[in-house]
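[agent] plan:
  1. take the single chain provided in the ticket
  2. run structure prediction with default settings
  3. attach structure tokens to the ticket
  4. add a short note for the reviewer (M.T.)
[agent] executing step 1
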Amino acid sequence: MGSLEDCCRRNYCIPHMLQVLNTARKAELRVFYALHRRYCPGDYETWKYIAPVQKAAWLHKAFEYGTWGGEIRREFEPQTGEIVALEHWGSSGFANTDLDLQLKKHRIHQLIVMGLIAHTCVEATVRYAAELGYEVTMVKDATADYSDEEMHAALDVNIPNYASAIVTTNEVVDLISSLETSGISAQC
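[agent] step 2 finished; step 3 output follows
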């Protein structure tokens, strides 16, 4: 297993995510954050039942405060009006959070999904979104994983079963920009 940080650098995940985010903000699309629970000592020690993904988060101190991935990068900090859903403890950004409620309250049914980690959080969030009736567009070069095999499993095998479209950063940026210039409501 490689470093997630290294994979992000290799596939330009962070610049691609930033490009999509800035385009969405310019088009005045509503932005939502579905953050993974950031590790803190004491999070799991008293749990009677713990899923393998949670045990791994505990053992590896996943997204620990103060570490790479444990803090929102300055350029991604939520702006006024952007929604930060409750942090999720498993993989899906929907399970045991207020993400679904927030999306419904804002009358949003089309999602553009990007982020980390492709074969766990991203895949589970896309799957859950589809099962809740959302139309999902996945930005395949704005995600990363620990290995090429895990990326392949997520983007080429599993996510196509749930996402309505799997696109590149350039494709989604062009789509958002065309909505903005055509005068069509960019609220999706």
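[agent] step 4 note for reviewer: The beta strands are 32-33, 83-84, 110-116, 135-144, 165-167.
[agent] ticket updated
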